[in-house]
TrEMBL record:
Residues 403-463 form the UBX domain. This is UBX domain-containing protein. It comes from Salpingoeca rosetta (strain ATCC 50818 / BSB-021). SUPFAM superfamilies: Thioredoxin-like, Ubiquitin-like. Residues 327-340, 347-367, 376-394 have a biased composition (Basic and acidic residues).
């Protein structure tokens, strides 16, 4: 049975169908070098595939996953002469020649004349080399240019990726043109599904998907897709997109796919120790780094793949139960703590409100007391000033006229109903009457006004003479009224 890596390498170099490459290797005793020489020596007279054969003749073996450089270095001549090379290789096998020719005919549909001509060309050119120095030089120049381009591009990718990690949210890799095989898996999924319902792979970065799986407490399924692997496309269409598999995946897992040829894909391949592709990893969500609990590798049919997934889930379910239980306990503890904190804050708020009201009441009482003291002090000061003014006014009051002098008897009714009498000179001003009332009676405080009896009119002109309000200098009665009463 030919090795899978040898079949894949021969398929990528010659662009022949997988089945034909298997039969060619079987015909040459699973010797990749002999099979390549047989195919390339019968590719035609242009010399390109012969040059490729010469470059391969110096390699003792081809690794299973080490043919990426060879894939990029395949020339256009290998693809154009694939039909004739298939016929030549098929003629070298006596037991499986007819089956190989039939398989090749289904893929390339060559005519009978082409098959006959190719067989004859193979027989005539098997022992003679077809490589020319010009073709070899052209091939090596192409290989060198491809190597330098890929190396430069990869170095630039690494530099931009490093500087992109220094600034969160800055994607410097978007400045580079993206190569075809570096598309994200979500972008490739519609083409790979070929119209069939596909699993709901998350279109988000890996950290976001990990947080979502941890939030839902569900297993995280990571699919690493190798675009240039022989079984990758068929695995997606035939296995992942099978109806039973799609329903089970969407119900049980948080799904995320990644292109294994991107920088992140290569890192995940190393971390999860992917030995072959297709690769499916099942991770147990954790608050920190998820734990890889199962790895399903290789191209499996839908039934086998689904059975292995169910076995993984049955094995991991106790861990999920423990995780859910611990999470529920943490949530209950957190809710209890939040309720206690809320009750404490409410109690603290009420205490602060009571303290505020108490302080407000004390402040208001203190202000009222201070205002009363201030008013009392002001009243005392006013009375003292008024007493001093009354004494001063009394000293300045002119003496009462004697009996032998011309005088008028004036009676004044005070606010409390009592009466006071005094003689005034007719020529004295009304102001003297005001000073007399103010200086001799404590109940007359502040502003006051004297009025005549009949008719009632105020003595507002204090510069007027007393005789003006006492007709014929006869005794006269006046009343005293406080202005603020």
């Amino acid at each position: 049975m030919p090795a899978e890596g040898d079949v894949q390498t021969l398929h990528e170099v010659t662009q022949l169908p997988i089945a034909a490459c298997q039969r060619i290797l079987s015909a040459h005793n699973n010797n990749l070098q002999a099979a390549l020489e047989a195919v390339l020596s019968n590719a035609g007279a242009d010399g390109d595939l012969s040059a490729t054969s010469s470059s391969l003749s110096s390699q003792p073996s081809v690794p299973r996953h080490g043919s990426n450089g060879l894939r990029r270095r395949t020339t256009a001549a290998a693809a154009s002469s694939a039909s004739s090379a298939t016929a030549a290789a098929a003629s070298s096998s006596s037991s499986t020649g007819a089956a190989s020719t039939a398989e090749t005919g289904r893929q390339h549909q060559p005519s009978s004349a082409q098959l006959t001509s190719s067989t004859a060309s193979s027989a005539s050119s098997r022992g003679s080399p077809a490589t020319t120095p010009t073709a070899v030089d052209r091939t090596w120049r192409g290989l060198l240019f491809s190597f330098l381009f890929d190396a430069t591009f990869n170095v630039l990718e690494c530099i931009l990726s490093f500087f992109g990690t220094l600034v969160p949210g800055l994607d410097l890799l978007a400045l580079l043109p993206r190569r075809r095989h570096q598309r994200s898996f979500v972008e490739m999924l519609p083409d790979l599904a070929r119209g069939a319902p596909a699993p709901a792979f998350a279109d988000a970065d890996f950290d976001t998907v990990k947080r979502e799986a941890n939030r839902q407490c569900k297993l995280l399924l990571v699919y690493l897709h190798a675009p240039r692997h022989a079984d990758a496309d068929s695995f997606v269409h035939d296995t992942l997109c099978a109806p039973d598999v799609v329903a089970y995946l969407n119900e049980t897992f948080v799904l995320w796919g990644c292109n294994a040829e991107t920088t992140l894909g290569r890192r995940l391949s190393r971390n999860m120790q992917a030995a072959t592709f297709p690769f499916v990893g099942v991770l147990l969500p954790k608050s920190g780094t998820p734990k890889l609990v199962a790895a399903i590798q290789g191209a499996l049919d839908a039934a086998t793949f689904l059975a292995q997934l169910r076995g993984v889930c049955e094995r991991v379910e106790p861990l999920l139960v423990v995780e859910r239980t611990e999470r529920e306990q943490r949530m209950q503890t957190q809710r209890l703590r939040e309720e206690q904190d809320q009750a404490y804050q409410e109690s603290l708020r009420k205490d602060r409100e009571r303290q505020r009201l108490k302080e407000e009441e004390e402040r208001r009482a203190r202000e009222e007391e201070e205002a009363a003291q201030r008013a009392q002090l002001e009243e005392q000061q006013r009375k003292q000033e008024e007493e001093e003014k009354r004494k001063e006014t009394k000293t300045q009051l002119p003496p009462e006229p004697q009996e032998d002098e011309e005088r008028i008897l004036v009676a004044i009714k005070l606010p409390d109903g009592s009466r006071v009498k005094r003689h005034f000179r007719p020529s004295e001003q009304v102001k003297v009457m005001y000073d007399f009332v103010f200086s001799h009676h404590d109940q007359v405080t502040g502003a006051f006004t004297l009025y005549t009896m009949r008719p009632r009119r105020p003595l507002s002109d204090k510069d007027a003479r007393v005789a003006d309000f006492c007709p014929n200098n006869a005794p006269t009665m006046f009343t005293c009224h406080l202005d603020d009463a």
